[in-house]
Write a structure and sequence with these properties.
Elements: E1 7-13, H1 17-28, E2 36-41, H2 48-54, E3 58-61, H3 68-78, E4 83-87, E5 91-93, H4 97-104, E6 112-119, E7 122-128, E8 131-133, E9 139-141, E10 156-158, E11 165-169, H5 170-176, H6 188-199, E12 203-213, H7 224-241, H8 244-249, H9 251-267, H10 271-288, H11 295-316, H12 320-328
Amino acid sequence: MGSRSLVTAIVPNWNHAELLESALASLRSQSRPPDEIIVVDNGSTDRSSVVAREAGARLICLGQNRGFAAAVNIGIQQSRGSILAVLNNDVELEPSWLEQLLDSLGDPACWFATGKLLRRHNPQELDGVYDALARSGCAWRCGEGRLDGPSWQGKIRIFFPPMTAVVLRKTLFERVGLLDERFGSYMEDVEFGLRCALAGCQGEFVPEAIAFHVGSSTFGRWHPEVVRLLARNQVLIVGKHFPRALLWRYAWPILVGQLLWGLVALRHGRLWAYLRGKLDGVRAIPSVRHPRAEPQQLAKVLRESEELIHKLQRATGFDLYWRLYFALT
């Protein structure tokens, strides 16, 4: 499939021209390079536009920061390829990354494929592999902060494609919709993955496809705006997708999971940003609420995803957050 299909790479960008330059160089160096590279720039004030043009990418300038989701959507709409590779501007790819993931898409039942993300400054440590969502509306980037090891070696079926570095069929967006721009940045890919799971559109984790990620290069990991957006979007996932019956059924896990995340924010001195995010989320629920799934269908997806979190946490050592969550729920 990889040799016959037109492949477009989409790179959303906001400043950090030096990272963008590395990302584009790693795309051009692929054993099977993309046929088209699109850089969607969210109003950068540095040399990003120059870097994109010098790398031979098609540059789309938005003039202002409209968020990750909007940038990806514009790239999708402007792309020529039937296969799309979406990656952050702070990712470097091993030369076989794209070829490995395209091989997985040779299976017509596979809608997307993602590989192993390692931390660029400590390649023995995982930045993450794929996402999973708990009943609380809180997610885990599975493997984050763990040493690479047996738990992350085999190919498995997944439903939550992390948009950090992923290859997807363009028709997937026709089937489940584009990214929800109301989520802006952070967890927009988890919400998209939930729609994939509800539609039965599965993907594959391919551990041989390696990418290196700087992570949190835009604001910093515990920047107040990052915490606010995460706290808000945890509420929006619940508010958008959970039918009333599941809101009552999962009231305790939702309360526990989101309050525990507040304690994590407090530990990093970001309680005010967390509270602002929750308030913003509650206010926005009426504008996003659109539960489509039957309660039994959504419950099954969440149960399987949460069981995966528990299995991987138990195998690799519980984070305090997840230890408390599972103990209390």
